[in-house]
Design a protein that fits this description.
Length: 245
């Protein structure tokens, strides 16, 4: 139990989280705490993105997988934790190395929603709580919320949660190798998600940009051609060079 609480504190809990014994009772199912992820200063080190079942089948799981992959492949962020809620929803748990203002996290999740899951209803501020932190007993259903192995997520598509309490050691094992999002990586991800500012009249080009042929990038493209092509695909270019070893 101590290892699990240590991992939850490392990844998700604010500095003014409930004391050790209260958390232990929560994790044992003796009590179920509804926790805010934001501390008294309005800062949070965690965000939860819920994916609730909206119909038959596992569409909510498929969508969660797409978003989890986008966080890593498109935005360069570490893998999030995955949970089942005890009432049929999945969750993606994001952890941040340094506390982030709750409003900034709300902006980040809203931008993620716009980019990757616009059809999912998400209450403003829901990402930073209050939440029932897994593992815990969901009182309304009698099922357990728990962190799960992503490779087994599809098997829970028709389940509300677990029938019994998950072993604390196993829950800790799911969390111990997870990394938190660093400040630089977070700012870069925000920059990628924010829409590009519209050109002002003074900055607008005097003539329309020329159309870039699909095959031009492999032939005689200029830097301007490459930028125009990437912008036509809604991609913000980042240019790097390799120094000789």
């Amino acid at each position: 139990m101590e290892k699990l609480i240590s991992e939850l504190r490392r990844l998700y809990l604010p500095a003014d989280a409930p004391p050790l014994e209260a958390l232990a009772r929560h994790l044992r199912g003796e009590d179920t705490l509804v926790l805010g992820l934001t501390d008294s200063a309005g800062l949070s080190r965690a965000a939860l993105i819920p994916f609730r079942k909206t119909g038959e089948g596992g569409e909510h799981w498929t969508l969660l997988c797409a978003v989890a992959n986008a966080l890593q492949q498109d935005l360069g962020l570490p893998a999030p934790a995955v949970s089942i809620s005890g009432d049929g929803a999945y969750g993606l748990w994001l952890s941040f190395e340094q506390p982030v203002p709750a409003a900034r996290l709300a902006e980040f999740v809203a931008l993620l929603r716009t980019a990757y899951f616009p059809d999912v209803e998400l209450d403003p501020g829901a990402a930073v709580g209050p939440v029932e932190l897994p593992p815990c007993l969901h009182r309304a259903t009698g099922m357990w919320a728990a962190f799960i192995h992503p490779g087994m997520g599809a098997s829970f598509a028709d389940e509300a949660g677990l029938d019994m309490a998950p072993p604390a050691a196993g829950q800790a094992a799911f969390l111990e190798h997870l990394e938190s999002i660093g400040t630089e990586a977070f700012e870069q991800a925000l920059g990628k998600l924010r829409p590009a500012p519209a050109l002002t009249a003074q900055a607008a080009p005097a003539a329309p940009a020329k159309t870039v042929d699909e095959g031009l990038l492999l032939k005689d493209a200029t830097l301007e051609d490459i930028v125009a092509y990437l912008h036509s695909k809604n991609i913000e270019p980042t240019f790097r060079h390799l120094l000789p070893r």
